[in-house]
Amino acid sequence: MPETSTYAAAVRAALDLLLRHDDRVFLAGEDIGVYGGAFGVTDGLLASYGADRVRDTPISEDAIAGMAVGAAITGLRPIIEMQFSDFVVNAMDPIVNQAAKLHFMYGGKVEVPLVLRAPGGGGTGAAAQHSQSLEAWFAHVPGLKVALPSTVQDACDLLLAAAADPNPVIVLEHKLLYKTEGPFTLPASPNEVTEPLGRARVTRPGTDLTIVGYSIMAARALEAAELLAQQGIDAAVIDLRSVRPIDHDTVRASVTKTGRLLVTHEAPQSAGVGAEVITGVVESDALDYLLAPVERVCGLEVPMPYARELERSVIPQVDDVVAAAERLMKA
Amino acid sequence: MSDFQRDPRSTPEPVLTNMWRIRKFEEALEELFARGMLHGTMHLSIGQEATAEGACGALQPGDYITSTHRGHGHTIAHGGQPMLMMAELLMKDTGYCRGRGGSMHIADVASGNLGANGIVAGSMTIAAGAGLTQVMKQTGRIVTCFFGDGAANEGSFHEAVNLSAIWQLPVVWLCENNQYGMSMAQELSTAGGSVAARASAYGIEGVAVDGNDVFAVHDAVAAAAHQARSGGGPTIVECSTYRYRGHSKSDRNLYRTQHEIDEWRDERDPIARYEHRLETEGLLTVSDIDRYRRVAADDIRQAVQEALQQPDATTTDLAESAYA
Lengths: 331, 324
Known about the structure:
Chain A is an alpha/beta fold.
């Protein structure tokens, strides 16, 4: 019987399951122990599993990520947390040069099964160095996988899928989603989630246009679709869930039906994931079904500002998606 | 049972043979490079053989190492097969990395070699993590992390050594101070002048030894390994040594004098010094020494010949190879 949970509690439930069922799993990150994590995600896990498996680290992002690589290639299953995804910049060598490449570079003789969780996104007034959406950086690196849950259930399920994957996986959670509530069924064990990473989900069927988003913009796209329905516009919504790999087939199949495509993400537009989604359509037969130019609703090309109204104007809102959909329907 | 695999005093045969294998391997590469048979550059460790062999010989089977961009010697000293290394460098499918890694990325994880690394200090945090695995799984194994004098000025050095100290990880931080980070002299690049001295800032032990004296390296690493294995935490062992060749093949040696190179080679060569001591202390006869040198040369010659016969690296499954 489905219950409800918050997004943060669903992440915690996944971590709890993994720690309980696999003694190779351990957590490491800044203030994840007695403090419970900057967003409370790991609250209580220290008490349940002890300081050996819920490891507070110094403020050393390079060492956190590099240590995880070393632990992963010698038989453990580290799940590390970057307190804010922005701090991952200090850990790019172990992620990009090491974790992503060792399996390939060493001739396939080693696996790097690590999960890096990090809260991303803006809307909290934390300004330019605590609000970024960096998924496109990681999506550009062969060897990495990148997942972004938008729902409470996915906050748990995508993390379990990431932990089951033999490759390094970046899971970018969204700060504004942590306190959101939604239906949630706790899997009995980590093995219960069998869907591998890389599958998108049609979260709303529709016939007039296809809106593709992920993370918080998948949630806002659903809200926008409800508003559009009041105007008689029937929008399909696809939650990408993973930006490496990208499930192009699901997008193409929808565009083939609707003929109109709108892509939205909070990250800046240029060289973003949206461009890749659109390319996946235009380089396939689905191109022939397009009835109008595609639309992108993305973050403004500036660092995240502090003031509430400025911040709001940089991040795509529900109204922006609605307006773009209306333009698209008129085209 | 001894605490380590090889000892320059009691088992001089494999120690000397390994040092010669390293040198002959590097010399063979120079020849292959000159004949245009290699792709890209390489970083040769001629002159640094005592550090690689002295350190790896002081470990136990099953112990781990991490290596550097100048890593051929570490791999050979840790039990790597010269034929598989040579096959990798000759772009063969049967090489250690199937032709995907090359000189800077040779790894043999099955034997505990967690890999050479093309990023200066890139292996240091990895070594800390491998050390954590030994603690959490209570394996009794340790990790020896080779790094250069240049790596000591990377932020990763600080983060990794600090973590190893607060978590008391079983790691030996083995600094191969070959005097130059590419072209910059260590005395110009390194505040305080000593890498070993930095250990005190972390509350751990630091020792500086003559890295061209295989006895000194062996003794220092054996002690550090014993301490790490018995839960005493990490040690920095700084080995002062010298590379005779340039940083890589593009090096014109503009930052040092020929006189300096000659001095190290003619007066402090690690193999010549070891042979001299073996002979004067009666540990080996001259004819034994000659024989082991020939054995090593033959090993490498055979490795090259066998490697040349191997099938070339293949693109067949390349596109699917980034993921496990």
